[in-house]
Amino acid sequence: MADDVNVSVGDMLLTLTGHISEVRTRLKELEDQNLHAELEGLSTRVGGLGETLAGIVEAIAAMQADPEPDPEPDWPGVSPNWTDDIDQNQARELWDWLTGWCQNILWPIYAQDVWKPCWYRHTRVRIALTALRGAHQWSYESPQVPPTRGLEWEHRWWPATEQLLKEELKDCGLPRDGLPVPRHPVPVPIQPTEANPNPPPPPFTVRDFADPGFLEYMERNIARRREPAPPPED
Question: Which UniProt keywords apply (predicted)?
Answer without folding.
Answer: Coiled coil
